[in-house]
DNA sequence: TACCAGGAATAGG
DNA sequence: CCTATTCCTGGTA
């Protein structure tokens, strides 16, 4: 229950600066993702000094563009960084929201108080986004938010996801056989030793997750408290997820995935894959299949024809399919 | 060039 | 055993 890995104090957090255009969308990006060697260091890395803060707060987490899932609701973050991409780190720091409840070097005096208010608001907004993004990622990957609970497979999925997110070269092998506990016990230096290129970024990203898990601890009995309408979740059933279930899950969250898959006619179960490469990549990450592509995903969909799960709609269109039994 | 259909072999739970 | 993955041939827009 308690996470001993909660020593959320001190050291330095490195986070990437990314813009929407950096996001891996094209097939060539996928190639880069698959190919082992990419000698370029992660771009836009800056480092932010952490501040000593009380437990249970995300310390000094700086998020110019924490586009975990490219959700629409976090797009304002993207816009911000898009508007002024080549900001030198120190400038960027000034403009960017910092999550940190107290202990920040906030200016004193009246102006300071006003600023502090604003800052607090921004902080809680960003914090909300971070938690939401983590939660969404957890659903997508079918892992728990607390790294301490991860098994080796979970760790690999998380790595795959993070690599995808920040366009890192594949480092899964270097972290093989490691559980979440192992991962959490590693220092930043350990990370850097395992991966020269992106050890520190991975460490920082893990730190965010760890911190988030720290804060959320009070309300995590089984953690999968489903809100609202979305229950029919395959994630907690234990069995490996089916492709059709996965697609349905994406379709149930137009807010998050509407840009890559959406209903054309929900009543009839007709949907369109808008970004085949992206959906395939998500599927590949979920199943731990880095080589997944639309060619293979679509083959799997076609297997459903015979089984009467998915079919082509009466008027066949490219990238459009239909659930035989709509909900 | 990207998508579509389906056979066949194989992997993996 | 079943589903999904991988690879493939050939076809369409």
TrEMBL record:
The keyword Hydrolase does not apply. GO terms for biological process: cell differentiation; negative regulation of transcription by RNA polymerase II. Keywords: Activator, DNA-binding, Nucleus, Transcription, Transcription regulation. InterPro entries: Ets_dom, ETS_fam, Pointed_dom, SAM/pointed_sf, WH-like_DNA-bd_sf, WH_DNA-bd_sf. GO terms for cellular component: nucleus. Residues 241-324 form the ETS domain. Residues 129-213 form the PNT domain. Its main location: nucleus. It comes from the Eukaryota. It is found in: Nucleus. SUPFAM superfamilies: SAM/Pointed domain (SSF47769), Winged helix' DNA-binding domain (SSF46785). GO terms for molecular function: DNA-binding transcription factor activity, RNA polymerase II-specific; sequence-specific DNA binding. The keyword Transcription applies. It holds the Pfam family Ets. Coiled coil: none annotated. May function as an androgen-independent transactivator of the prostate-specific antigen (PSA) promoter. Binds to 5'-GGAT-3' DNA sequences. May play a role in the regulation of the prostate gland and/or prostate cancer development. Acts as a transcriptional activator for SERPINB5 promoter. Interacts with the DNA-binding domain of the androgen receptor. Interacts with NKX3-1. Belongs to the ETS family. This is SAM pointed domain-containing Ets transcription factor. It comes from Coregonus suidteri. The lineage of its organism: Eukaryota, Metazoa, Chordata, Craniata, Vertebrata.
